[in-house]
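Annex B, item 7. Sequence and structure tokens for protein A, then protein B.
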Amino acid sequence: MHILSAKIWFPPIEDAMEDGLLAIGGDLSINRLILAYQQGIFPWYDGDTPLWWSPDPRFVLWPDDLIISKSMKQVLKKNVFEFKINSAFAEVIHQCKIQSRVGQDGTWITDAMESAYIELHQMGLAWSAEAWQNNQLVGGLYGIRMGKLFFGESMFSVVSNASKFAFIHWVQQLKKEGVVLIDCQVYTDHLASLGATMISRELFKDYLEKYVYPG
């Protein structure tokens, strides 16, 4: 495992440990975060020191593989929610931060991370996809969009099916706009039910090199 300093760099992702941990330290500066995503690396930690990850295998979704269950098709047909993009990014990431999750004592979204991703949003790199009901934000997700890849970070829901609704609409929107792969990082039953699957880090790296453009 590599220890990072003030210098903005990352070791080759092949140097990651078996659990995917690649490096420790550094900061959440915008330039470092941009470089991380360009190389298929993401921050994930619950303390004061950043931990940087590149797991193998990688959990991803090809837009064509999106699974919409019969029950969700009914939800979509009934227009229970309204779909919006980037109308409340700061609120989405804050909700992802404060929502309690089964099996977790706290959140990995620190104050510093919240601020950094809001700045990335202001630069046009971080996006939110949202579910609204009766003019209230009830679910959504956020992540980083670079080239033809979207790197999902977190999602939340305060009403049943709201996050699934936002995710389905977002995947369909990204597909229309030519996005070829959605990074889901690590396995969850929730995303597996929507069609996400595991691929090798080597294949994921190929997609990065082909479809993620610098800057």
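Protein B:
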Amino acid sequence: MNNFCTSCGARLPEGTRICPNCGKLIPAPKQTPRPAEEPRRRRPPEAVKKQRPKRPKTVPMTEADTENRPKHSKRYRVIRGLIITAVVLAAVYFSLFGLQVLRIRHSSYDFESTMKLSCETYGEAFDRSVEEGSWSYDPFRFEASYTGIHDGKSIKLVFSALVDVKVKYIEVGGEKKDTDKQKETYLMGLFI
């Protein structure tokens, strides 16, 4: 292919970038376009809308930024740790309390008598014959207590509920009943 200088019209050898006649710079020859490629498909407008917005680039923090950032004091961290610990302990306590009370309410005393009883569980007996009853729980001794009023006297039943549910003792009007015979006699009155 013969090229000609666009300034002076002199014939140029192939690949020449400067005209040897006038010294002007020869522009690069125009390239012929490639055969047409398959046009790209445009996305429908809905797809364009669904694109996530670009996140801004994060800029690394400098020492000045870290010095100006508010820091939590040691006192704040200690208080926050104590509050979290208290919440966890309270959740454990109330979970154990609820489970132990549920276990006791659904268990029964093993009476030596063959007499027919009207209640089968402590829960039924307490609901039927004790007024103003309430539960308390000591997680350190694994004891649950039920207090209320029965036949005009205050009662307190203390249960050991570590593995099996057992009545440790009963207080009726301030008098403690802790032998098996005394406990069975009083409980039978509740279950009849």
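Comment on protein B: The chain has a mean pLDDT of 81.
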